[in-house]
């Protein structure tokens, strides 16, 4: 496989030479293709962009399983992490009610997971808001970041699921992120595309049908995830030439150089809780 498996516990993804949005989103989508249940994404610095997700997602149904909360300030981000159990409980109530009204749902593709309980938690740029807030002293910022990491570790253990995090910088401030992580993936940009290395995984080649190497683009990630979707029985969504391009979504380029419209519904849904405010 060309993408690593996400194991239970906190996985730190370090991307060399950029934010690594396509690889981060591809790991999330690949995990959802293999496991039932929704993903809960606490976003910072615009990693949960609908444009790139729409370009690489093999099915719009996957996007409906991603619930996003955005923290634009330190306390919004911390509050979103603390309120995540409330969002999970609300999601479980809604999904079980819908499943009961619709009768028996589709068979599970993974006997160890449920379509109602979380499959993954994502928290990219975990350090971004805590290092950027000029109103916080260094000690206070470190304390809030440590509490955020402790909450995420509790969720990973309590729900028995992976928690995928990234960090903006590698320095003394983010050393606690590496310390708390159970697994570590490193992604470096090479001439052929991103190369991912982990404890039990290493990207070696990017094969295509004619035996040549493939330069990694959004079209590459889309084709890779489409193949995964076919493997697990999810019908890929293929846009037709007559499909209009929704405002703000844009277009994608296939492996053959054909420009196609990228269509997708907006991501569901930022969670709110009484007293948290601003999300």
* Total of helices: 9
What's the Cα radius of gyration? 19 Å
- Point out poorly predicted stretches: 240-255, 260-270, 272-279
Main sheet: which strands, in order across?
3-2-4-5-1-6-7
In helices, the fraction of residues equals 25-40%
E-strand count: 9
Largest sheet: 7 strands, mixed
Mean pLDDT: 79
Structural class: alpha/beta
What distance lies between the first and last C-alpha atoms, to the nearest angstrom? 37 Å
Provide the β-strand percentage band.
Answer: 15-25%
Shape: globular
Order of SSEs, N→C?
Answer: EHEHHEHHEHHEHEEHEE
Plain-language structure description:
Residues 245-254 have a biased composition (Low complexity). Residues 97-117, 233-256 are annotated as: Disordered. By secondary structure, the chain is an alpha/beta fold. Helix content is 36%, strand content 16%. The protein has nine helices and nine strands. It has a seven-stranded mixed β-sheet, with helices on both faces. The radius of gyration is 19 Å and the shape is globular. Residues 240-255, 260-270 and 272-279 have low confidence and may be disordered.
């Amino acid at each position: 496989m060309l993408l690593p498996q996400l194991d239970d516990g906190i996985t730190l993804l370090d991307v060399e030479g950029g934010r690594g949005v396509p690889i981060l989103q591809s790991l999330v989508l690949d995990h959802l293709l293999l496991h039932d249940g929704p993903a809960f994404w606490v976003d910072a610095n615009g990693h949960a962009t609908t444009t790139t997700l729409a370009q690489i997602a093999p099915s719009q149904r996957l996007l409906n399983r991603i619930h996003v909360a955005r923290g634009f300030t330190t306390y919004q981000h911390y509050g979103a992490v603390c309120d995540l159990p409330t969002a999970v409980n609300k999601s479980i109530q809604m999904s079980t009610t819908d499943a009961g009204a619709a009768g028996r749902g589709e068979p599970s593709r993974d006997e160890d997971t449920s379509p109602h309980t979380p499959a993954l938690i994502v928290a990219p740029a975990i350090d971004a808001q805590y290092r950027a807030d000029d109103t916080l002293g260094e000690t206070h910022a470190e304390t809030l970041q440590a509490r955020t990491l402790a909450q995420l570790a509790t969720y990973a253990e309590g729900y028995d699921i992976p928690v995928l995090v990234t960090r903006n910088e590698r320095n003394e401030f983010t050393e606690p992120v590496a310390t708390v992580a159970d697994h570590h993936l490193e992604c470096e940009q090479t001439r052929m595309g991103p190369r991912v290395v982990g404890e039990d995984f290493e990207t070696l080649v990017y094969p295509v049908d004619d035996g040549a190497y493939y330069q990694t683009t959004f079209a590459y990630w889309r084709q890779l995830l489409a193949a995964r979707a076919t493997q697990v029985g999810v019908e890929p969504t293929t846009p037709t030439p007559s499909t209009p391009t929704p405002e703000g979504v844009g277009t994608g380029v296939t492996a053959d150089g054909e420009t196609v419209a990228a269509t997708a519904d907006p991501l569901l849904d930022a969670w709110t809780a009484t007293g948290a405010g601003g999300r």
